[in-house]
Write a structure and sequence with these properties.
- The chain is mainly β.
- The protein has one helix spanning 146-154; strands at residues 6-14, 24-27, 37-38, 49-52, 63-66, 70-80, 87-95, 99-105, 110-116, 126-127, 139-144, 159-168, 176-184, 194-201, 205-206, 212-213.
- Strands 2, 4, 5, 7, 11 and 13 form a six-stranded antiparallel beta sheet that branches.
- The longest helix has 9 residues, at 146-154.
- It is elongated and about 90 Å long.
């Protein structure tokens, strides 16, 4: 009597982890120079920023430091955003201001992530999930799923052409923020496993009219 043996061959089960060291750098300050603009209507202390050489991120040569009521913009080469795009930014909150944030824009709309501060902003363009999540006075790297958050906010995938650095301090003193290492890390993130299964029927054994056994 024939027998059934179901042989299932696992052809591939591979989880690919990216090995690139830094991803695709969008902006850092390693050249020692940077051109910053004033964010309209908010940059009350336009000169209160500097490139520092001590206390930088991960031993880099320079990091950006804002220390007044200062909102800065930085132009970048246009970058198309896909649904899975993830950027990172390194931020060091020296002391708490009213609001410290990092953002991106495409000339028509903006998306801003608050990272620390005494105030919680309102408005759909503000994402506050990271605010106060980490201790002050240390560098932290934030992963920003821009490819998900931008369409959820504005309803389309943008081509980004500017970065926004915020150290908001309308009243009082104190508050300083360092920024560095704005990087597209999409290709560096782990990829879900890809699996293929092939099944081959070899033999079976009939037990009765309706039952078979491998």
């Amino acid at each position: 009597m024939p027998r059934l043996a179901l042989a299932c061959l696992l052809l591939a089960a591979l989880a690919s982890t990216a090995t690139a060291e830094r991803g695709d750098v969008i902006a850092d300050f390693e050249s020692g120079t940077v051109t910053l603009g004033s964010y309209p209507g908010q940059d009350a202390d336009p000169g209160d920023w500097e490139l520092i050489t001590s206390g930088t991120h991960d031993g880099s040569a320079y990091s950006l430091r804002l220390f007044g009521n200062t909102w800065k913009t930085q132009a970048i080469a246009p970058r198309a955003v896909a649904a899975g795009t993830v950027w990172q930014v390194a931020v060091h909150v020296e002391s708490e201001a009213e609001m410290q944030a990092f953002g991106v824009g495409d000339g028509a709309n903006e998306l801003l992530y608050t990272l620390a501060g005494e105030q919680l902003p309102t408005g759909s363009q503000w994402w506050t999930v990271y605010q106060g999540a980490f201790p002050r006075d240390e560098w932290r790297v934030y992963l920003l799923p821009i490819g998900e958050d931008w369409p959820a906010t504005h309803g389309y995938l943008p081509t980004l052409d500017r970065l926004i650095y915020v150290n908001d301090r309308d009243e009082g003193s104190g508050g300083a923020t360092r920024f560095d290492a704005v990087i597209d890390v999409t290709a560096d993130l782990p990829v879900p496993p890809s699996v293929q299964v092939a099944c081959t029927i070899e033999r079976l054994t009939r037990l009765d009219r309706e039952r078979w056994r491998a």
